[in-house]
């Protein structure tokens, strides 16, 4: 399931992030990737233990907490600390699949990566290239969103970032371990949740239809969730 979520970040949050990124020190992005991915990765990142990464990550986490769509689509159990990358002209990230297990930040705890997230921080007209290409059974999907918008997609997907040819593409990225590990089950639950919201707009919340749909949703979550 590929889900685009608009306006995760408010304009004031974007302004704060950009202001702090202007003063940030970027390091080689290969420092935080596996052996295979390092062969096809050429970008810059904020060091995970830097003050900027921690402060900006906290802004992103607060934005996620207030997004009902994010919670509905991901049903998060763990969210890795947001990281930040930058692609300048000539930089790219070739086709790869994310590691199945990742350390949660700098702690010894580990998490399963069910969902990958990219939160775009640069405006689309500020750079050429830099599209996120995500492959699934229906082909490759090209994603290049407005600043402040985010895309969620299965971490099992083969994906890549096309070469940037002008400007700089800056984004935040992170992973989610979902309470519901199977993507097809999460997709059904997300569609059902959206349908319940639509039904609620046209009839009272205590109507028998709304109640039955809500009960079905929670019973499916109860059946599939693995806390």
Summarize the helices and strands and which ones pair or pack:
Layout: E1 3-5, H1 11-21, E2 26-28, H2 35-38, E3 41-42, E4 44-46, H3 51-65, H4 68-74, E5 76-79, E6 83-88, E7 92-96, E8 101-103, E9 110-112, E10 115-120, E11 127-129, E12 132-136, E13 139-143, E14 150-154, E15 159-161, E16 164-178, H5 183-202, H6 208-224
Antiparallel strand pairs: 1-14, 2-4, 3-7, 4-6, 5-16, 6-16, 7-15, 8-9, 10-14, 10-16, 11-16, 12-13, 12-15
Annotation, overall tally of beta strands = 16
The residue fraction in helices comes out at 25-40%
SS field, number of helical segments? 6
Query: Any idea what the shape is?
Result: globular
Key words describing this protein structure:
single chain; 227 residues; alpha+beta; nine-stranded antiparallel sheet; 33% strand
Summarize the structure in words.
- The protein is an alpha+beta fold.
- The protein is 33% helix and 33% strand.
- The protein is built from six helices and 16 strands.
- The protein has helices spanning 11-21, 35-38, 51-65, 68-74, 183-202, 208-224; strands spanning 3-5, 26-28, 41-42, 44-46, 76-79, 83-88, 92-96, 101-103, 110-112, 115-120, 127-129, 132-136, 139-143, 150-154, 159-161, 164-178.
- Strands 1, 2, 4, 5, 6, 10, 11, 14 and 16 form a nine-stranded antiparallel β-sheet that branches. Strands 3-7-15-12-13 form a five-stranded antiparallel β-sheet. Strands 8-9 form a two-stranded antiparallel sheet.
- Helix 5 runs antiparallel to helix 6 (208-224).
- It is globular.
- It starts with a strand and ends with a helix.
